[in-house]
Amino acid sequence: MGLRVLAAMSGGVDSAVAAARIAEAGHDVTGVHLALSANPQSHRTGARGCCTIEDSRDARRAADVIGIPFYIWDMAERFQRDVVEDFVSEYAAGRTPNPCLRCNEKIKFAAVLDRALALGFDAVATGHHAKLVDGVLSRSVDHGKDQSYVLGVLTREQLGHAIFPLGDSTKAEVREEAARRGLTVADKPDSHDICFIADGDTRGFLAERLGAAEGPIVDQSGEVVGSHQGAHGFTVGQRKGLRIDRPAPDGRPRYVLSIEPVSNTVTVGPRSALAVTTITCGAPVWNGPSGRDDLTVQLRAHGEVYPCRFEERGGGLTIELARPATGVAAGQAAVLYSGATVIGSATIVSAS
To answer: Which of 17, 23, 135, 243 is the most exposed place for a label (fewest CB within 10 A)?
Structure first.
């Protein structure tokens, strides 16, 4: 007997094909588009942004082709509070958040899943490129498009009500299938960057909400080498966009090493000073098997993976890397894998 499945349809090719596969498998599928912007634009700009009127229309057209009911759910207020305001406050505190990860955690698999279950649905399906077998999350066969990292914050219970139909397909295969099914989004560009910052100007977005606050840029000795208009405009590992008046003595480029929001100070130094081997995290979410073979950790979406070992300490998690990583920023997620399988995640607090 088929399941009652709510298919989250963004208006893109991945979610459209995911919904089509679930319906073809014999499940009772209803499509839903999440209206996440209180003032959606009439048109998207290339591959930037999402949540436009065009996206909702694309999702509706795909649902019509598939032959499933379709609704639009207004999640703008919840998205503003749990994702956008969280994003701004995290930067104000000197951390670097991942809004896609927060959206999955707070919107798609909290607010939407809770409502879906209350309405009698058995599961929520999305177009994420990840595999889910018996409630265990693992990487997609298309490692270039793998999204298991941004799903690593989900709990076992949430994963138990999730369906990811695309985990065994490459992106090229998904687009080819969309064309065969007559879905007009087959060639639609992927959205990228931060969906609620359509022009890609994160620094401008934060400055508008947090205001300008001039502060010093210092080197590792504490000597002032430049100035900035707000520490919130920087992230650890950043090289470009630094207003440095005094070049390094060795002529090499400088990178952001740390951000101190209280004193509004940004510290810069050589790339070698970014190397860390110990990462301290907050409380972990364990959502996979407890095996500790072939352990690796991923520290950014689509970032490099590092062999590691870990230990739970005082309610948090300490991760020791087998080789140094650079550009590790507080606020990002550390997602632990055993081979291709996700075993858990935690938010990075500090690194050394």
So the answer is: 243
